[in-house]
Amino acid sequence: MLMRRLFLGAITVWIVSVIIFAGVEVLPGDACTAFLEREAQGKLLENCRETQGLNRSAAERYFDWASGALRGDLGVSANGQKSISELVGNRLRNSLLLALCALTAGVPMAIFLGVVTGLQRDKPVDLVFSTTAVFAMTIPEFVSATVLILVFSVWLGWLPGIVLTSAGSPVSEFFPEIVLPVIVLGMVMTAHILRMVRSSVIEVMAGDYIQMAILKGVPYWHIVFRHALPNALLPAINVVALTIAWLLGGVVVIEVVFNYPGLGRMMIDAISDRDLPVVQAIALIVATVYVGVNLTADLMTMVLNPRLRTHALRGS
Amino acid sequence: MSTLIDIRDISVGFVGRDGRTREVLRNIDLAVDSGECVGLVGESGSGKSTLALAAMGYLKRGLRLLNGSATFNGTDIFAQSRQELERIRGGQLALIPQNSGQSLTPTMRIGAQLHEALRLHSALPADHHATKAIELLGHVRLPDPKAIVTRFPHELSGGQQQRVAIAMALAGEPKALLLDEPTTGLDVTTQAHILELLRDIAAERGMAMVYVSHDLGAIARVCTRVVVMYAGEIVLEGSTRHVLKSPTHPYAQGLLASIPKLDCAALPIALDGRPPAPGDAGAGCAFADRCAIVQDRCRSVRPQLAPSEIGGTVRCFLAEEAKRQKGRTTGAAPVRYSGDDTMLDLDGLSISYAKPRLLEQMLGRGTNVPPTVDDISISVGKGETLGLVGESGSGKSTILKAIAGLLPPAGGAVTAGDQPLPHTVEQRHPSQLRQIQLIFQNPDDSLNPRHTVSDILEQPLKLYFGLSGNKLRARSAEILERVRLGAHYLDRLPNQLSGGEKQRVAIARAFAAGPEIVLCDEVTSALDVSVQAAILDLLNDLKKTQGTTYIFVSHDLAVVRVLSDRVAVLYQGRLCEIGQTHQVFGGESHPYTKVLLGAVLEPDPDAEPTLAADDVVERAPPERGCPFQRRCPRRLGAICDTDAPPWQSPATGHAIRCHISLEDLNAD
After folding, report:
1. What is this model's ipTM?
2. CATH number of B3-246
3. In B, which residues are within 8 Å of A310 by CB distance?
4. For a tag site, which of A172, A173, B85, B200 has the least CB within 10 Å?
5. CB-CB contact of B494 with B445 (8 Å)
6. Is the preceding omega at residue B622 within 30 degrees of 0, hence cis?
7. What is the mean pLDDT of residues A169-195?
């Protein structure tokens, strides 16, 4: 089962890499036309393609690119001639840092609040937090980001409103600049996970085995922790996984608003510079993260859910 | 005898959308002595489960105690603190739930759930819990209790789960047990075994039991006293014998008449109408609208529950009248098939659920697991009804799916009329699809909740007959009439219909296609008996007027008996016996058929089931020999394990697949 999932995951990444490569391939122009701009013609263009290895067949170049990527070598960027692995490495670290901070702050809080609101269904606590969560989910991130900058940075002056640290700086220098982006991300993320956990808790608490536990005389908190939560939190694993993937690849708006040097902003810059090797590299990384995180989530669910781990008796 | 459970004048209700309080239980008195087993009977919605749970001080979300009290062993249950209730529940007063599969926590091992019960409710020191848990599981006759404690609930069969629930209830050495439909949804054989176990436990421990069930057969087996409930109130109470043999309330009579009997091939009599919704009972007798002997005063004055001179306590002005009238107890004879045109032919059908592994798939290899259903050859005549019976896992529904083209068979052929049918729905021609229609067990699942009745019926009419506009509407109404629903139902949504009405719509949808063959998959299992009787009557009627060929799958042998011309008995996806209904249900038959018939519970306190074989659930059929070899009470020896049994024919049209000679089969 495990081997099968790993195998399928690897195939997914491979297919995605082909699509990414083919997508870039069908665009008009290549790294040389982008680099040489107006001089991209005749001998100069040919020479450039020769040195870049662009005159070889697409299959050969794909093989080169893919085998390099497997070894951690993502090629060189088109304009700066710098190693993409180095460029992306820092950005990936920064994105991971942001994601990690948001997750450590957000996930425990989201799960706690989700459980509390689920147990206190339709009571004041539930109404307050559930409504807040809906707001947090619906307000566009740039709006909440701007409001937070206005309040905490401009008016109160407690926190820096923009990240000035350069991409390669050590982790410690990102504090406290990272706090506001983490809060904005945390809000959206917490809201999603909270709503999910809440509905899952409500569903489980209405179930037959909870009624049975009550009628068996099991004390309330015991019911919550031993009977309800192990079942109610299973679906949360997948939501948390999706959130992680989103944090690592898709927080473009927040990175731009706060000038945070993460992967998302690098992708935007690379696209506007037509730096196709970098675009390819980031797309591949993000795809791998998605596949990897979801695979991990499925495996965790499998480990924690006995129904998936062991065989059921055959039904009719 | 001391009174253990004492419920006085209890009323429970909820506040409806209109702000009115609607009563689910109305002024109920119930006293249960220690050592006594009382049955609570009624249709769904009668309040029987609510009453049983109220005895534990538990009301479902939204329900409130409006009046009265419930005492257990002298303690006023509703006046207790949460801690005190936690001590009593699962301790001296324990519940055995309906559907234990869902009542056991899926993420906890059986052992952990038993330990929890022991920790909460037994005086035993913690280091004795493990041995006690195993002892309890052995006590409820579970094989290999040491292995069971390490299992998760889904790894057990329905019967094993129910036994675990019983063991858990016994952990606290209860004085009283509440049983909420404990055998509903189990196979007949399993049910019979569980009931015997409960009888023995009750006898040996002298516990009081309150047994909630809609199944009068089960009640007859375990209860000494029966309370019949209708629309939230008690309508009849008396000894089991009195209630089942000479009921004095018209509702109880109707209920009994609507049960199909194994020894009688007549159609059961349906109880028309449906009980009033909570709070809608009006001033008079709640049953007045459905009562055959109703008088004017019944509609204006609510009869009181009063001891009757002819035995028991009854809520009816006309109890004596009712007893005298008694009415018909059996209905009309069902239509019987006579003809010899073949409509459907299954030839060597085999179906496999086992999927080859990824690696095997890539290498183009199949699996070597024996197929789930194997070598089924049956031919069904035009207008004939074939019943398929067997326990869960016998492959009944699987065969229907293969006929319908929903599950491609691994081998064999299906022929309808004179055309061989392609294996999947995608490959079948629309006219072949129209020919075969399927009706499912649960109309809640098979009807789209967002489609009105007319949407549902119009689909086949548009698809197969290209009808539109007024014609389409008129035809839909006509089809509804045929299932005895008026045209005013056309614009309703499924949730505005009762269970029986929904199933009628599902039947109407199948017949809208003008099918030659209708496959019925447990079509009455989810319905109350009185509604079931009406549905059986309807199916019989359609058979008469449309000449439809049915394949009727049910785990209820009495229901199969009513409608079927011929019956095929299946075990582990293999045919054991096939023949005319009367041949299979009497005379010589396959040992497995005998096991099934012996386990059927009749609503009669004198009927006693015979439990010939263990209720073991087998995971897969054996690779060789007779499929029933591992459970057969009349196993001959090694030959059963190695050789496939031969077909023997005691009479024309009757065939038994067994190594035992016909004389020996007959001798038993």
Report:
1. 0.83
2. 3.40.50.300
3. 152, 154-155
4. A172
5. no
6. no
7. 86
